[in-house]
Amino acid sequence: MSNKIKQEISKIELPKELNERSKMGVSQAKKEIKNNKKTFIGIAAALLVSIVTFTLFNNHLNNTANNSNIPVDTGDGGVHIPAIQLPEDNMSADMIGLIVYNENIYTQTRTEIDAQAAKDIIGEKLGTTKAIIDEWSEQEAYNKEFASTIGKADVYTVKGYDKDFRIMTYTEQDGKIFVDLYENLNGITINIGQDIFGKLNIYGNISSAQYRTFSDWNNSIDDYQPITDMETLNVFVEELNQTKPLPRIQNSDPISNSRNDEQFRELSINLNDGTTVKLTLLKDGYIYYGFMGAYFKMNEDIFSKLWSILK
Amino acid sequence: MINLVRKAQKGNDKAFLTLFQKYEQDIYRMAFIYVKNQNDALDVVQETAYRSFKTIKNLKKPRYFKTWLIRIAVNCSLDLLRKQRKAVQLKPELEENLSGDINEDADLEVTVRDLMEILNEEEKSVVILRFYEELTFKEVSETLDIPLGTAKTILYRALDKLRNNWKGDGFYE
């Protein structure tokens, strides 16, 4: 491809110290890697001693400790979603927007609000985020209050919502207002749909709703179709509280085979307070909300009534 | 190249430097678009070299070295901007519905200054990756961790801004 943008960028002159600066970066890293190796050997030796000691004294310890990020079935119909942990391979970490507050990790959510509506439900200021988490952060960075991946922004409570569940950022820059909602959807146990959907205050507060197909969602085309049958929608929303949570496990997650127009709809529900809750619905009765390690299964009859109007 | 990556993953700094220097000019020019001056762009290059050598052992698929490195360079540039000013927004504005005959025509008249001054950070990222690095939309979306549709929307918005600027309506000036 030959294009003017490439030609223009290629005109940026290169300073003669460029090569030198690359070398400096590499040698700085090399030094630290060497030092870390020395420390690692020290720690490994100490750890080995501890492990041997621990094993000797805990012969009967049942080794089922689960340190991973994988959501698990609690055995009584619930799902436990572990607190966000950095994967060993940091580079594969999805850098979604997140904020650490009150020892919980709040992630960017699928509920949106416009700047004007935000002014009406903004609550008390909790603090200001610090931009200290990136792909290379150690786990301890996640333990610092107001650590975040979103740069610097003021954090507030949201009127009408539990601050242990939802907080918001509100920033004015260059005359524009930026608002985002963040929710604590990890480090939690969900026993029934109400544990999540109840907190979203959907039932009884709907002003309107619309949906779009997979292709439109995937291509960011705002071709929304309005929902006029509010009765069916209300029955569906009430039933959300009774849905059964299921852990999202890579091989059995139904969404992986449903990314098509036949099986996938995005449902947007506008609430009276100006928030818009976005749910992903799959034809077989599954519902997804936000970046979380669980999805929900609904009673087939009620689900299929709503699905039939999302054509 | 894959052999060099493997050597670098074992800690061979010479192999890594050989690889890195293939891309250092690209990284410098990309950084320059974000940070707008030589000193900061050189800092970004050094920081990218530092972070990438430190973490190359975690790169699982050596064939993705280039996009992996570019991703680090973009993050280093944004981090530097974050340190210098209040915040870099991840989602600067709600996505507008773009309609009409917007095409992916890169042959519009544009200067480096236009790219630096008219586009916001996410638009710069998509334009640089798509046109300067010549990545596919799929690679752009994977490098920046955004949905494919969003990458397209951002690119079209950016091109639209550049085009409107060239037409001289002054809206973005």
TrEMBL record, chain A:
Spans through the membrane: 39-57
Keywords from the named record: Membrane, Transmembrane, Transmembrane helix
Name of the protein: Uncharacterized protein
Natural source organism: Gracilibacillus oryzae
Record flagged with keyword Transmembrane helix: yes
From TrEMBL, chain B:
Pfam families (UniProt xref): Sigma70_r2, Sigma70_r4
Gene3D superfamilies referenced in this protein's UniProt entry, alphabetically: 1.10.1740.10, Winged helix-like DNA-binding domain superfamily/Winged helix DNA-binding domain
Keywords noted in UniProt: DNA-binding, Sigma factor, Transcription, Transcription regulation
SUPFAM superfamilies: Sigma2 domain of RNA polymerase sigma factors, Sigma3 and sigma4 domains of RNA polymerase sigma factors
GO terms of molecular function: DNA binding; sigma factor activity
Gene Ontology terms describing biological process: DNA-templated transcription initiation
InterPro entries: RNA_pol_sigma-70-like, RNA_pol_sigma-70_dom, RNA_pol_sigma70_r2, RNA_pol_sigma70_r4, RNA_pol_sigma_r2, RNA_pol_sigma_r3/r4-like, WH-like_DNA-bd_sf
Domain RNA polymerase sigma-70 region: 19-86, 116-164
Domain of life: Bacteria
Entries under PANTHER family matching the protein: RNA POLYMERASE ECF-TYPE SIGMA FACTO, RNA POLYMERASE SIGMA FACTOR
Family: Belongs to the sigma-70 factor family. ECF subfamily.
Protein name: Sigma-70 family RNA polymerase sigma factor
